[in-house]
């Protein structure tokens, strides 16, 4: 067994917890499938599949501790006691994960009940990333350099006066690097750093866990209820569960333009803001501001969380552009947790199918604001574009 392991069931992105809570309540009998996508065409050395399988099998031993349950109950009151009791009894089932290696190519799929399988995506990506660097014997920067880089970035962001969170679990270099980054970010009391998407590290360092929902929430609704209803029903169901809490809406699953057609005055007032995750950030800011103004809502009372491939230069450009127009905050991922002198991996894991009542698989689709990020069955992509009147 390698020295790499997961030591907490909460070593995961917070939006996986919040979505799991919603799925348990609304869709407890739905079966889904996820697939690993190697966007960066990375090569995996011989035996990678066996090493990954060994760690995945070990994850069945993880359980929510009493202290972790107390942390969630205190920090996240919108996660009610029945869900926390469920999470206390939950464990990973490694049989839901299929791992196959052919030469240097890796295939990973996850299939099962949605409320159970929803927690696999982020830890699997983090494990694949860490194992990739370890098995290829790639040497990273020293701990001191990682800490120094992070402190320098935090200082620059403090000077800009913008709030930011650490969003880097899924493509982190390793658990140790993310731990170093969190240690550096929490050193200064007077800081604009507001929290982490990683629940385990948020608890460890006494900061807020940050997140709402991911693309899969909308992708599921598209497959289950149809593309035209996906955004509206996904938001409506979110409101049904959280009643105004966790009020940041993800905007680009079926393009931002389509989203804003359905993000009506009710949603625009109820949600605190929106998250940008693809396409030109300045163009997105203009569209968001214009949308609020059309509904007689002052954009300065709302905000955008930017989270797409951010570095300091991008953050500075966006901050200056949006100043005095709309509130902004930033979720910075890979640039914090995988800036270690090596090339970061470009890997994702996506919901690819939802099983219907007659046991047929309905492919899911994601139509990002960047065409290169379209994911799903090509025929379904064309069908979604036709239904939603999206032209290239």
TrEMBL record:
PTM-bearing positions, type Phosphohistidine: 215
GO cellular component assignments: cytosol
Keywords, sorted A to Z: Glycosyltransferase, Ligase, Phosphoprotein, Pyridine nucleotide biosynthesis, Transferase
A GO term for molecular function: glycosyltransferase activity
Post-translational modification: Transiently phosphorylated on a His residue during the reaction cycle. Phosphorylation strongly increases the affinity for substrates and increases the rate of nicotinate D-ribonucleotide production. Dephosphorylation regenerates the low-affinity form of the enzyme, leading to product release.
SUPFAM superfamilies tied to this protein: Nicotinate/Quinolinate PRTase C-terminal domain-like (SSF51690), Nicotinate/Quinolinate PRTase N-terminal domain-like (SSF54675)
EC number in record: 6.3.4.21
Catalytic activity from the UniProt record: 5-phospho-alpha-D-ribose 1-diphosphate + nicotinate + ATP + H2O = nicotinate beta-D-ribonucleotide + ADP + phosphate + diphosphate
Domain (Nicotinate phosphoribosyltransferase N-terminal): residue spans on this chain: 10-129
Enzyme class name: ligase
Domain (Nicotinate/nicotinamide phosphoribosyltransferase) ranges: 164-387
Signal peptide interval: none
InterPro entries, sorted: N/Namide_PRibTrfase, NAPRTase_N, Nic_PRibTrfase, Nic_PRibTrfase-Fam, Nicotinate_pribotase-like_C
Origin superkingdom: Bacteria
Pathway this chain belongs to: Cofactor biosynthesis; NAD(+) biosynthesis; nicotinate D-ribonucleotide from nicotinate: step 1/1
Listed GO biological process terms: NAD+ biosynthetic process via the salvage pathway
Function: Catalyzes the synthesis of beta-nicotinate D-ribonucleotide from nicotinate and 5-phospho-D-ribose 1-phosphate at the expense of ATP.
Annotated family: Belongs to the NAPRTase family.
This protein's name: Nicotinate phosphoribosyltransferase
Source organism of the structure: Chryseobacterium indoltheticum
